Amino acid sequence: MVVAANAVSGALPGSGNGSSSKKTDTxxxxxxxxxxADNLYxxxxxxIRYCKEAIHLSNRLHYAYGAMRGYIYLGDVYYQSxxxxxxxxxxxxAKKIGDASADKRGFSYFYNDLGLFYNSIQEYDxxxxxxxxxxxxxxxxSAKGLSEAFLNIGVTYGGxxxxxxxxTYLNKALQIAQEKHMDQNLAFIYMNLGNAYADARHPQLQRxxxxxxxxxxxxxxxxxxxxxxxxxxxxxxxxxxQGQFDQALAYSRQAMDITRxxxxxxxxxxxxxxxxxxxxxxxxxxxxxxxxxxxxKTFYLTLNDRKQYLKSYIDLYKEWGxxxxxxxxxxxxxKVTDSxxxxxxxRNMDILDARxxxxxxxxxxTDLKKENNWKTRLVKISVVAVIMSFLFIxxxxxxxxLKSRVLLQKQQVLKEENARMKMEKALAEEKAVRVKEDLxxxxxxxxxxxxxxxxxxxxxxxxxxxxxxxxxxxxxAYVEDIRKIIRHNIHLQEDWQKFKMHFEEVHPSFFSKxxxxxxxxxxxxxxxCAYIRMNMSxxxxxxxxxxxxxxxxxxxxxxxxxxxxxxxTDLGEYIASL
Length: 578
Hints:
- This protein is mostly helical.
- It has a domain at about 465-575: Winged helix-like DNA-binding domain superfamily/Winged helix DNA-binding domain (Arc Repressor Mutant, subunit A).
- The protein is built from 24 helices and no strands.
- It has helices spanning about 1-10, 20-40, 45-60, 65-80, 85-100, 105-120, 125-135, 145-160, 165-180, 185-200, 205-220, 225-240, 245-260, 265-280, 285-300, 305-320, 325-470, 475-490, 495-505, 510-515, 525-535, 540-545, 550-560, 570-575.
- The radius of gyration is 56 Å and the shape is elongated.
- It is found in: Cytoplasm.
- It comes from Niabella ginsenosidivorans.
């Protein structure tokens, strides 16, 4: 550790190595953070120094991730040193840096460590909230990260007494660890599942025993003596609770043997406390007394350790029948318990004070920002007001000049508009005259066509009369006379096409519309429809076609039927609408 620390210190800015690239400097930050992590549980002073150096360099480089990790480690080491208020302030500063940064890589570490912090001071709701936030920043591909997050959530639910949820999350962690063959994680998960079922309101000691044995198997594969010692001690406690004292004693001795070889002083001491409790229940009072005295000689007892020590001795003296001694120790136990409560209250007050100071600082910063924003806004408003005043004065001057110019332009525009309107009116009148003349011409052509048709009808009727006189037909001169009439008037056969052409110039698409509606209409019926459109009466049509008015009425009835019109519909109105 000393070599690594010196190597890192030699690379720090300002050490005479000259300026370096940002990439090299961020590598230095990472080395400092690694040194802080390496010394976290062994040398708090070094850890604090490495963290502060990493934070200072990260701030200079605007390296948010490095500064955030530095404050996270600082929060950890302050907590280990019982500086609870400073620990909370460091974690909150880390969160503030993370919130302001687009780089969220450190958030899973931050929320995980903050959750452990809250868990240790038994603020389980805050701890669970932090662990769930940590889970949100762990990628789905990180099996190890997910497994550890579920493990921490399960342990926290167990501490809060919610064994059902504790088991749910621990089993989630277990499933991932089993799928990925993560033996190191498996050992811790099995151990905590055992604790959950052993410490439940309604303990399930057999299930707890099975999990502790599985923890031993997993820990044996990885050489995890820490989990092994706890698992053996826990199995000893379960056997003790079930009255299986010999087996309990054997498990307890195995736990003490492992902790002694591994150098886990704290675990060794608590294994011996469990060993003494078993001896007391077996009524081996002298052996229990000797073991407790050995604990006092061998280990340094903190207040919590002394509390457990006094409780073990009180239980021993009660079972031994020495109630006077038990009562004396009870008074000592009360004093120790009061001291622990006082320390806990002090810790909680430190954290509360840190929270108050941190949030007060945040409030002051927010107020200052608001004040600065208001001042900036006021300056902007003043500048805008001055600019607007100048603009207003300029607009007044420009407006006066513009009004006279606009007035002249309007007068000119009005003159031009009047001239244009007069010209358009003259053109419109001229166009109307041309349209009227054209319409009159077409109507004259149409009327001429109708007259021609009428003439054709009379000629045909005359031919018909001549042909009806069979006796005269024998006279060649009579027949030749009929032929001359036909040859003279043969051009009249073209009158229907001319009629159609002139009619559709006045009434476009009339015949095509009728053809679409009633394609079965005959040529004579189409003619009658045209005459109806020309507002000709039945008598006029009858005279033109050389038929009786009743024949015209019958023809109109057939036209109406072919058009599919109901009886109540007026044929003239319908044809006029086409």
